[in-house]
Design goal:
Among the domains are: about 170 residues, no CATH class; about 130 residues, no CATH class. It has about 450 residues and is an alpha+beta fold. The two termini are about 40 Å apart. It is elongated, with a radius of gyration of 30 Å.
Length: about 450
């Protein structure tokens, strides 16, 4: 562990998407489209001069999704950067900046910034700073995004120096967090440029003037509309990763951006739950608890989902999977699996992966396999046994296999005791009323999950 390095997420971007040219070209200049010179791998997907980009976030924590600070650049390097409320040991340091220049500037001290070599602490006055007032310093946005059409395993960073882009990004967090209970990841967003009229102070004229400029805008996108437009451009692996990210519950620190939970996003799909089908049904919210119907994660109405689950090309896969998972190949079970994906092709990919997973489990599994619909032995449920009783690992009503001797009760000695037979048949004596240790874990390991 290295405090300050390994105790926080480290995001290595795969490329940078720019909104314009930088200071090396004689100052920041806007562009009518997004620039991909530092993310050329996106050109085959987005085109050479994209004017809109559809994306999602990898995290529900705004601090991991966006970094916003004040920066002052020369033509060759970053001179000054705000570090407001950075923690020094245990306490936030307040409104300070790290200064990397050599010349004396207002607010600068001779103390290195938190021990960093060739830096000095500087009091940051934000809009009261001389460099901010001359336009040398300004707001800077780094937004970390994932583009499903390219890869769900790559992070790209949008780089913008516009305060309007910063405000628009914060507005997106506010709206998306309100709608989805603080969950950003897995939702689809669109960024584009729009010409707006803004007001600024003209130092030459000595007054406020208005001008039109292109500003980065953000908007939420209906997921089904996105899939209709781009679904055939997303690989099955990336589609499965996107839908898993959408199905994942809210992960991250609750913040000012998060309000009430959205049950339709908090509910895990039944196909991924590792316990019995009856328990899944009991866990579903009742109609009285939900103000609006649950939105199918895979998209489409009931008929479309049923058609996917009953597609003739998938019949053999469903039969094989239900046999391996030891569950009924019912229309309801097929429906619950089909609603987590958006196409027959992706459903086939998912079923094949689950079949391979179950075959691997069966190859490695030891001990008896108990179906979710069969009697669960007391010795794996933690249920206390009557004193002097013997509990076998077989469901009720099954006869003793040939060649196996019946376990016999042990005589009571001292306090009341119970005799529990291991799966091997060897008896173990435990005090009466004592739950069997590790029972819950044992059940999870031997009960076949629903698909």
């Amino acid at each position: 562990m290295i405090i300050g390095l390994t105790d926080k997420p480290v995001i290595r971007r795969d490329g940078k998407i720019r909104c314009g040219t930088g200071p090396k070209t004689g100052g920041f200049k806007n562009s009518p489209h997004f620039l991909l010179r530092d993310a050329e791998q996106l050109i085959p997907v987005l085109g050479a001069e994209p004017t809109e980009i559809f994306f999602t976030f990898h995290s529900d924590n705004p601090s991991e999704v966006a970094k916003i600070d004040l920066r002052w650049y020369s033509q060759t390097k970053l001179l000054c950067q705000s570090m407001h409320n950075t923690t020094d040991k245990t306490k936030p340091i307040g409104q300070w900046a790290v200064y990397r220049g050599q010349n004396e500037v207002p607010g600068m001290t001779q103390e290195p910034y938190l021990g960093l070599a060739r830096t000095r602490k500087r009091q940051c006055d934000y809009k009261g700073c001389a460099q901010y007032q001359t336009g040398d310093c300004g707001e800077h946005l780094f937004l970390n995004i994932m583009i499903p059409q390219y890869s769900m395993g790559s992070i790209f960073t949008l780089d913008s120096v516009s305060i309007l882009a910063v405000v628009n990004a914060l507005g997106l967090f506010e709206k998306a967090g309100t709608q989805h209970g603080g969950k950003f990841s897995g939702e689809i967003y669109r960024m584009f440029k729009k010409e707006v009229e803004s007001e600024f102070f003209d130092t030459n004229a000595g007054k406020d003037v208005k001008r039109k400029q292109l500003v980065v805008q953000f908007a939420q996108v209906n997921y089904q509309d996105y899939i209709t437009r781009f679904g055939n451009k997303i690989s099955p692996e990336n589609m499965h990763a996107l839908e898993a990210l959408r199905a994942r519950g809210h992960v991250g620190n609750r913040s000012i951006y998060s309000l009430a939970s959205d049950l339709s996003r908090q509910q895990e799909p039944l196909a991924l739950v590792d316990h019995s089908f009856e328990e899944d049904l009991e866990a579903l919210p009742s109609p009285e608890q939900v103000s609006a119907p649950l939105t199918p994660l895979g998209g489409g109405d009931d008929k479309a989902i049923k058609d996917r689950g009953n597609h003739p090309a998938l019949a053999a896969l469903f039969v094989e999977l239900s046999t391996l998972a030891k569950v009924d190949n019912s229309e309801l079970n097929r429906y619950n699996v089909a609603k987590t994906v958006n196409s027959v092709e992706n459903l086939a990919t998912y079923l094949k992966a689950k079949i391979a997973e179950h075959k691997k489990r069966l190859a490695l599994k030891e001990g008896p396999v108990v179906s979710p619909h069969s009697h669960t032995p007391a010795h794996v449920t933690g249920t206390a046994l009557p004193a002097g009783s013997v509990q076998s690992a077989r469901p009720a009503g099954q006869s003793q296999p040939a060649g196996l001797a019946q376990a016999k009760p042990q005589p009571a000695a001292g306090p009341a005791q119970s005799v529990v037979s291991k799966p091997t048949g060897a008896p173990v004596v435990v005090p009466a009323g004592t739950p069997i240790p590790g029972a819950a874990q044992k059940v999870a390991s031997i009960v076949s999950p629903l698909f």
